[in-house]
Amino acid sequence: MAERVAPLRLSDVAARAGVSLATASRSLTGTPGVSAAVAGHVRGIAQEMGYVTNMHARSLAGGIASSIGLIVSEIGDPYFSEIASGLIGVATEHQRMVQISHAGDPDAVLAQIRLLRAYRVGAIVLAGSGFSDPALEAAANAELASFQASGGRVAVIGRHHISADAVLPDNVAAGRSIGTYLLGLGHRRIAIVAGPATLNSVADRVAGTLEALGTIETLGSLEKPGALESPGASVSVTHHEFTRAGGAAGVAALVEAGLLGGDGGGEVTAIIALSDVMALGVLAELRERGIRVPDDVSVVGFDDIPVAADVALTTVRLPMAELGAAALRMAMLEPASRPRRKTTGHELVVRASAAPPKARP
Tell me: domain 67-169+321-343, CATH 3.40.50.2300, correct? Predict the structure, then answer.
């Protein structure tokens, strides 16, 4: 009978590397407190010996567990897939596994938080947009507070009514950049095709755009496009789902309201879609109706997803992958006395979908 070989232990790696058991553990799990040189040395020894870290055993012993929970609205949306990519990159560096969950409404968010807790994740990152009504996030906030009290780590991406570390996309300033750019081109009759008015990300993007356009009124949820007059521009806002179909529905609503003509006529000379996915729907619907871009109407987007370059879409670039990476790094830090805040930048990306308005009769 073949002799049974005892499995390698962390203490074996520590002895070979000439470090303490604690240093070996920190080196192999990416925990702060060990220099890069020492950590690299220990990992090299572990690889030579064929040692694999038992992350489950480590989670039972304390510290951040081996799994990270990421909650997004829709992983098929390039905005969230880019965020997930950045987060997974950091998780890989620290030998963590990522569990991704979908949740598009407050009840689903709460259910997913509870499910991730049941699976004993060590940290939860909430990447979906926060809701404008604090009451909608009260239950999730309480559940996450309980999770943190039990040793879990939490970070959110975007503006939420949740007491946790947060990475904040540059939504307001990015909206200002888009509005300023269109004004500079000469547009004064502009439509905003927005996502649901209940989302903070929508409110922030609209607010920044209206600030640049000289409109200071606060908008609510509108069934049909609502026009606002201001010294800077006349702005029409219509709210739909944050999807390609929602963008197409926005164009249809503008046509129905008489603000956009089927032959390229009408009052509106530029459309701001509050996500690039919506902008794709806008472009497709305009093409279907024979309205030329940018000859008849200019179109700009928001996010700069990879396909935006393929359709020559002028948009504003947010560092989505960086948002995900920063959120997980923040979640892995030791808890602070009060929630941390980290903001990101943006960049206006000018392509061929926007141009000065043509003269109207």
Answer: yes
Q: Which residues pair with 156 in a beta bridge?
A: 126, 166
* Range 171-317: architecture per CATH: 3-Layer(aba) Sandwich (3.40)
Residue the block writes with tokens 């947060």: 166
With beta carbons less than 8 A apart as the criterion, state whether 197 and 219 touch.
yes
CB count, 10 Å around CB of 326?
22
What's the maximum distance between 2 C-alpha atoms anywhere in the chain? 95
Is-contact 274 237, C-beta < 8 A? no
| pLDDT tens digits for range 14-70 | 999 999 988 888 888 777 788 889 988 998 998 888 777 655 555 444 445 578 999
Q: For the whole prediction, is pTM greater than 0.85?
A: no
Tens digits of per-residue pLDDT, 311-327? 999 999 999 999 999 99
Question: Which spans in 18-105 are helix H?
Answer: 21-29, 36-49, 55-61, 78-93
Q: Which two tokens stand for residue 326?
A: 């920063």
